[in-house]
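Supplementary Methods, section 5.1.

A reviewer requested that the exact input to the structure prediction be made available. We therefore reproduce it here, unchanged from the version used in the analyses.
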Amino acid sequence: HQSLEMKGLIQKVKSASVTVDGKIVSKINRGLLVLLGIQETDKIEDLEYVCRKALNCRLFDKKGKPWGQSVMGAELEVLVVSQFTLYAKMKGNKPDFHLAMKSNRSEPMYDYFLELARKTYRPDRVFGGEFGAMMDIALVNDGPVTIEICSDGIEHRKSKAKIDFDKKKPVSEPPKDTENSSATCSDNPWKTAAQSSLA
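The structure derived from this sequence is encoded token-by-token as follows.
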């Protein structure tokens, strides 16, 4: 049985970075690396739940006590990377990704996650990868601490936000942010692989 839920794989890190074609596109010092998995039936409410929990999850020490404060409370940084392979389902020895949301819809969902995180926390403390790109992710896991946040079985707060999937951007809350590190890579093999497996 494969559960259907949005997934956020949260890693407490001392540092993390995203490199594309030999160029660093995002990097953080202490904070969280969030690998975000979006599946085909996810809604905005699922996204808002995972975002809220990731930002408020108490993974950091406070005055010497473990698990005392969130990334926001500690005023650290956040790096969010889209990760459709979290929905791999093995068919023999080959992974199948048909449960993941298609890229033409998951990209605006990912963009909204970034905008919501920036609005909730601070725009200068939240960074993204490059959507659909072949990325090299470097990190130093602190602990190690890795947890999975899932939206399955939770009572959602009704969202006021809407996403125009044709324009690939939120059309209401939160307000548009001037910085957006995600990009479309229509010829990228990762995106092509995801689309072909979902076709």
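The mean pLDDT is 82. These observations are discussed further in the main text.
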